[in-house]
Amino acid sequence: MPSEPRSRWARPAAIVLLCAGVLSALICGYLLTLMRPRLYEDPAVARSVADSLLTFTPPPGYEPKGTIDWRLLTFLSLQGVYYEHRSVDGMLMLLQVASPGLQGSDTVRQHIDEVLREKNGVSDALVVSPNVERMTIEVQGRQRDFSVSRAVDSATDANYRLLEGTVEGRNGVPVLIGMRVVESAWNIDAVKAMLQSIR
User: Fold this and answer.
1) What are the pLDDT digits (tens) for 91-116?
2) Of 162, 71, 76, which Cα lies nearest the Cα of 124?
3) Does residue 30 form part of some domain?
């Protein structure tokens, strides 16, 4: 029984489909590399990112150290900067999550604020006391709430103070301020001065 002749377009169609598949895989790979978080440990870059988020004066001893920049195409972007204390175990962090497509949505703004407060990284690896003090300070012309907690590093038994709260960034998007410092270096007056310096 003779076999049916193959269509003269079968082979070129298979080649076109194979090329389209390979091209799609390359494009997807490229897009995934664009969406990878970028970490920089460069004080100059950190200072520049901090200036783009807020105008403020960090407490004495805190120096800019590094940044994270994570853009998920046009849907979402996360920018952060961290400062470290030059002589004690202390960290100050600014973190902003923006979503241009959802700008102006109070529901989204509230959700981002809640997520930033829950998942901030300031208290990672610490056992945080459930007793949280609320501190209300005038920042940017309005009363803002900040939480102050105590924590212990279970590996070293070192005691820490934690601060977190959100303020409005230069572009109108909330910026989380998180701070962790050993208890012996906690200076509430310097913290209040930093918060009040925010513009």
Assistant:
1) 999 988 876 655 555 555 555 555 44
2) 162
3) no
